[in-house]
Amino acid sequence: MADFTGDAEEILSQPSLLEFEGEGGWREHIPDFLLVSGRGRWLVDVRPAGRMDDDDLMKFAASSEVALALGWGYAVVTGWRPLTWRNVDLLYSRRRPMQDRLGLKPRLLRTARVAQALSQPLTFRALADTCEFPALARPVILHLLWHRKLGVDPAAPFGDGSIIRVARGAVR
Questions:
Q1: Which of 33, 80, 91, 102 is the one with CA 20 to 30 A from 44?
Q2: 27 has which bridge partners?
Q3: pTM exceeds cut of 0.85
Q4: SS3 call for 150
Q5: Could you tell me the end-to-end alpha-carbon distance of the chain, in angstroms, rounded to an integer?
Q6: How far apart are the C-alpha atoms of 95 and 146, rounded to whole Å?
Q7: Residues 14-50 pLDDT 10s
Q8: Could you tell me which residues come within 8 angstroms of residue 149 by beta carbon, excluding any fewer than 6 positions away?
Q9: Taking 80 as the threshold, does the pLDDT of residue 55 lie above it?
Q10: 160 phi and psi angles, rounded to 5 deg
Q11: Beta bridge partners of 20
């Protein structure tokens, strides 16, 4: 999810070992991630909702204190809405650089810009169908969505009827 926001400059997994004095003596905890972005640094722990015990809460409190002392943000992520998770997971499959030998990217972006300028809703299927071979356009559209050149509502079911729009700040 941090990758998808496009804001993360660095994502460090298990960035440090924290040692702190807690109930019963000295304790240790390794936070899950340190996210570095233009908006600052965030220390993040990940635990499924409903699977935290008192020991976890003590570790999270220690992580929160360290983050506060360093001027960082702190969050415990307990999960995502299943539909949003599935949609981002689908787009994640197209995160890698891809060659565009058929020149579909500029054509698809141009089509989306025209539709948006005319205030005409454009569905995933309709955009793919503007190409001679729609099956070849579909993975390119997913790639453009992952890289935030195009946008879609990640909280809505994704499919042929999903409304596609040009992402804010997309490079021409």
A1: 91
A2: 20
A3: no
A4: strand
A5: 25
A6: 6
A7: 999 999 998 788 999 999 999 998 889 999 999 988 8
A8: 105, 109, 166, 167, 170, 171
A9: yes
A10: -55, -30
A11: 27
